Amino acid sequence: SMQTIRRLHTMSAWPSQSSRLFPPKRVRGRSAGDLDSLMVPFLGLRLLLRVLTDDLSAADSRHSGSLNLSGGIAVVLILTASVLLFRRQRGLPATILAMLWLFVWTAVAVHTNSASTGTLREGVREASIVALAVIVCNARGAVNVPVAARLVQFVGFAPAIVAIYQLATHTGMDVAGNLRSNGTFAQPNSAVMFFAVAATASMWLYLDHGRRRSDALLVALFAVASLSTFSIDGLGTLFAMMVAFGLLHPGPWRERLVPVAVGALTVAVFFATPLGSQRVASESTSLTAAERGAQTSSLSWRLHKWKTLIPEWEDSPLIGRGLG
Fold first, then answer.
1. To the nearest 10°, the Cα dihedral for 310, 315, 319, 321?
2. Quick check: pTM over 0.85?
3. How many Cβ atoms sit within 10 Å of the Cβ of residue 227?
């Protein structure tokens, strides 16, 4: 009997076939953690590729009428989010509500304007935004706020360099007779909005995460890139974001005034440049130009569109005209 006990003890010391084929939950959890860590480079590369190809999605691009690379990236994000949502089901009710909302307004657009490429593109674009939120929600904390800020820096670095190069070489986009930098984005206005977010995120990383010199340099880089677009709306947004961040940031006033000073300096340089002062002067005539239907600037274009669309919204105040 003692020999039998020794044999049983020896056999129990070796892992069974089932334990070798099906590792314990701790190992499986670690593998899931490794998978979650891959979400950061996955998102970084996809978003970088999306930003670098944004200009291909412009209305005047020869690729705009087809499923271009940007549309393909959006589809990849949607499929990735679908797989994660099916396996982990985090944020499922909110995702269902968001997609139902998109479906309803896409159906409204098809009913009012018939099915068009613009409606399809807008639906895919907004669905990819929901997909990005689903991926982050199901990444189990791998994409936290500091990581997201680093991703914004990573994605925005190359477009900012291109925008500054366009400013130095006068090779930007011709908007109403003015050369304005757009980086790799479709328009200067869309570029400056991204640069403003990147500048504010870099300022937060500098003040709250180690005071790294690289973060301070990136604040300057994105501020100059924002200035190179000569977008009044975008620079106003950058100034508002920096002031709000400075006033709401905890700490001594000397530290809180740093983002306010960066925003104010950027706007002051804009007013000091010939194109900046010329743009401010030209915007005073935007309302008159919009009344005539002329589109002398982006502001007059918006005012003219509002003047055209408001009567259509009055005809259908509840459901509007849908996406697109």
1. -60
2. no
3. 25
